[in-house]
Design goal:
2 copies of one chain form a homodimer. Chain A is an alpha+beta fold. Chain A is built from 5 helices and 14 strands. In chain A, β5 and β6 form a beta hairpin. Chains A, B: This is Peptidase.
């Protein structure tokens, strides 16, 4: 399994992804799922992936080497002119990999299932965040719900629903994203440490943070402990139900 | 959608179920999903259902009227002698409905998908809680993870994972179950008020609480407000991440 969350707030863009992949519970590995296409001063782009690892890796390689267009030309992700065109290119790369793999996937009865979070900023173009589906189509994050998730998204959604708004400080957005990741890791063993994080401030056209949080990370360990303790205290502070025989 | 949770703790059994059913987002109704088969002093049994409403209602009617066995006899749920035999009877009722409906479901390309939480106590037999699948097979709740869920279960699982143990007080189990229901209702509009709750203390052989929580319920409203405020305070009390450019 995989869990990735992207948060687009007033201050900028945060992306968090776990690194656990598994082909069955007896075959678990660590693979990077959060990638950057970064040209400081010109553009900052982050891409997080969920789904079949062979497909997502091929999509990444195509985006780096260039995706063929109908006229036989090639376009690399770092050559796109707007974030919308860049998201279209990711979609085209997915469709390209599908056309190559279709026959083999059908023969092996495999499902072609991938999804991507793609966000960033190019020059004076607005900062944007997209969720790109396995058909290559995509939706865009809006201020009303300033986050998007892929993979095992349900366990970590309640805290995002409650705690993240467009005007949430970008450091707090990262913090709440890490709490969301913690909730997911506790409920699904298929999502696990280490996790990768990336932060880009709006207009900076560079990464502010790009870091791997390993098992021994002191801040993340402390965050998990504090969150657990606070939840325990929170439900203990609520009065017991006054219903029926439970009264008094 | 549906969300039902059953908690079997030292003090007894708690069951909570929402009442929202939908055939498309434009066709939403309220149906009871939590039912009792109760003979005070002899037995207390609760059954919560998720999935196709026509199937779950037929299963309930069969359990009330009696399920045919191979010898042409009929057994009603209130006539079973142990909770294990009662769970088997629920499974048999599901298979019976499947055999009646199979042809029609296949013709209409409908999936036969139901699940049940079934718990209670008969005489001096131990109190037990089961999750019964659409094939009629079932698993039993154990002290290591003293709750079972059906339906839209992921949003409400993190708080259960953290806050419920076998020695949790039964009033607290009900309270945490309501928090779990609240988290689910906030993230999935297909799960909604009113909700039904039932509580039976171990050995009492009767319902301690059987109640519908409506939209205006003062305690539940207060619980939701307090939980929201506590979560806000909890994540605000955690220091901001010290990573990279976010430092200081």
């Amino acid at each position: 399994m995989t869990y990735c969350v992207g948060l687009l707030v007033e201050g900028g863009l945060v992306m968090i992804a776990d690194t656990r992949t598994n082909a069955g519970l007896d075959d678990i590995s660590t693979y990077r799922k959060l990638h950057h296409f970064n040209v400081p001063g010109e553009r900052v782009m982050m891409l997080a992936s969920a789904g079949n690892l062979s497909v997502t890796q091929s999509v990444l390689s195509l985006l780096a080497e260039g995706v063929e267009d109908d006229e036989g030309g090639r376009l690399r992700l770092v050559e796109t002119e707007t974030m919308f065109q860049a998201a279209q290119l990711v979609g085209r790369a997915i469709r390209r990999v599908r056309s190559i793999e279709r026959q083999g996937f059908e023969a092996a009865n495999l499902r072609f299932e991938v999804s991507f979070l793609f966000g960033g900023q190019i020059g004076s173009d607005p900062m944007r965040l997209f969720l790109i589906y396995s058909a290559g189509n995509f939706i865009e994050c809006s201020g009303d719900a300033p986050f998007l998730q892929i993979g095992e998204h349900k366990y970590g959604k309640p805290i995002l629903d409650r705690a993240v708004r467009f005007d949430t400080d970008i450091s707090d957005a990262l913090k709440v994203g890490l709490i969301s990741m913690d909730s997911t890791m506790r409920s699904n063993l298929g999502v696990g440490l280490p996790i990768d994080i990336a932060v880009a401030r709006r207009g900076a056209l560079d990464l502010d943070v790009s870091r791997r949080i390993e098992v021994g990370d002191i801040y993340f360990h402390d965050l998990r402990e504090r969150w657990s303790a606070a939840l325990r205290a929170a439900h203990k502070a609520i009065p017991r139900p006054p219903y029926g025989g439970l009264k008094g």
